[in-house]
Amino acid sequence: MSGEHGSAEHIEYVLRLADNALVLGQRLAEWCGHGPALEEDIALTNIALDLIGQARLLLDHAGRLEGKGRGEDELAFLREVPDFRNATLAELPNSGVASAGAAGGDYAVTIVRNLLFSAYQVELWQALAKSADPELAAIAAKSLKEARYHVRHAADWTIRLGDGTEESHTRIERALAALWPYTHELFATDPLEQAVARHGIGVESAGLRAGWLEALAPTAAEATLALPPDTGFRSTGKLGRHSEHLGFLLAEMQSLHRQHPGAMW
Amino acid sequence: MAQTEWPLWEVFIRSKQGLEHKHCGSLHAADAKQAVQMARDVYTRRQEGVSIWVVPSSAITASDPDDKAELFDPAVDKIYRHPTFYELPDEVKHM
Q1: Of A38, A42, A156, which has the smallest distance from its Cβ to B34's Cβ?
Q2: What's the pLDDT score for residue B73?
Q3: How far is A40 from chain B (nearest CA, A)?
Q4: What is the DSSP string of A166-227?
Q5: pLDDT given at position B72
Q6: Domain A8-228+242-259's class?
Q7: How far does Cα A64 stand from its chain's mean position?
Q8: Which listed site, A152, A198, A238, B31, has its alpha carbon 20 to 30 Å from A13?
């Protein structure tokens, strides 16, 4: 680290965390007004807002570390697909991994993704609450409580659907099989993570996987679901190499800011 | 016939420690556990509460509106039943 600004690795690491929250928050926001029941509509919107709140704090922090005058808006709305550092799991459509533009949402996909991702966030925020970056540690401590609730919500539905009717079981099993390959990226430690871990700023995510699996096991068992085997597939969103879905998501998310730069409400 | 809609629950929220739970609305949920969770999302998202009760709406027995006259009107002219003649010490709150 030099002066008040962060190293390139530090900035990019915070952007990864921010983009995960921002992109999944945007995906969940697509359910607003379309939830399967009024109560669930509000629940999902609350979760989306929690994630967007995390993203705002993290983007603001990344902008300060960078020190080039970019704030949360510039980072959220004026970067292009290859600049985003979210894991591919976050950007997949609510309808599943089908081709871009697939209409509508599949609630099983939404719930399973929230379970897998929120359980990962719980492990991550727990570790980052002890970060040497005090700002990041504070954001982690605040976000941990939110992530714990997100897990609770998703786990509850996973059990209901998994241990529900034949159709609900089939659909949630299918969602788990489709999304599982994308979870490996969350725990793929790379040189960037090793660099921030050396400085006590970040953690090597490979070390989080055991706790994550342990946390998922009781829910999977109660939902009568088996965790799928490793297919060997590895997504690369956090390196900036995304699926075809992210461009469509950004087009929608960024259109207002790009048409009305600096718009406020 | 299979039930196609979730049953209705009445939601009671305690806004802070020491206060009683107050009825704040109702919602649909599959069971009690889910009703508590949904009540959290629907009724406490603006820091309204510290505790939630849910009760199946079907468990509530209501008075009959047609009985209004005989149930409630006799109290109208008995103002001596109101404890308005006591001085409350300042330490007693929430009375």
Answers
A1: A156
A2: 86
A3: 7
A4: HHHHHHHHHHHHHHHHHHGGGG---HHHHHHHHTTSS--GGGGHHHHHHHHHHHHHHTT-PP
A5: 87
A6: mainly alpha
A7: 22
A8: A152
Contacts of B34 in chain A (CB under 8 A): 156, 160
The DSSP letter of residue B28 is E
| Residues A200, A120: Cα–Cα separation, whole Å | 19
List, in sequence order, every residue forming a beta bridge with A226; answer none if it has no partner. none
pLDDT of residue B2: 60
Measured between CB atoms, does B34 come within 8 Å of chain A?
yes
Which residues of A are less than 8 Å from B45 in CB distance? 42, 46
Q: For chain A, say whether B30 makes contact (Cβ under 8 Å).
A: yes
Helix (H, G, I), strand (E, B) or coil at A236: strand
- Give me the pLDDT at residue A222, please: 97
CA distance A156 to chain B (A): 8
Enumerate the domain spans of chain A. 8-228+242-259
Q: How far is C-alpha A212 from the geometric centre of its chain's CA atoms?
A: 15
- What does the mean pLDDT of chain A come to? 94
A144 contacts A154 by C-beta, under 8 angstroms: no
Instruction: Quote the mean pLDDT of chain B.
Output: 89
Do the Cβ atoms of B28 and A39 come within 8 Å? yes
- Stretch A201-224: mean pLDDT, rounded? 98
pLDDT at A96 over 90: no
pTM: 0.88
